[in-house]
Amino acid sequence: MRQTDIAIIGGGLAGSTAAAMLGRAGIAAVLIEPHDSHPPELRCEKISGGQQLDRLRKTGLAEAALRISVHDAQIWIARFGRLIDIRPSQQYGFMYDALVNAIRTEIPAAVEHIRAKATAVVTSDDRQIVTLSNGEQVSARLVVLAHGPSVALYQALGIERRVIGACHSISVGFDIAPVGRAAFAFPSLTYFSERTALRTAYLTLFPVAHGMRANLFVYREMDDPWLRQMRREPAAALDACLPQLRAMIGDYAISGDIRIRPVDLYVSSGHRQAGMVLVGDAFASPCPGSGTGTDKVFTDVTQLCNVHIPRWLATPAMDAAKIVEFYDDPVKQECDAWAEAKAFTLRAVTLDNSLFWRAQRWARFLGRLGQGMVRRTRETMNPSAALRIRTRSS
Question: What is the pLDDT of residue 337?
Answer without folding.
Answer: 97
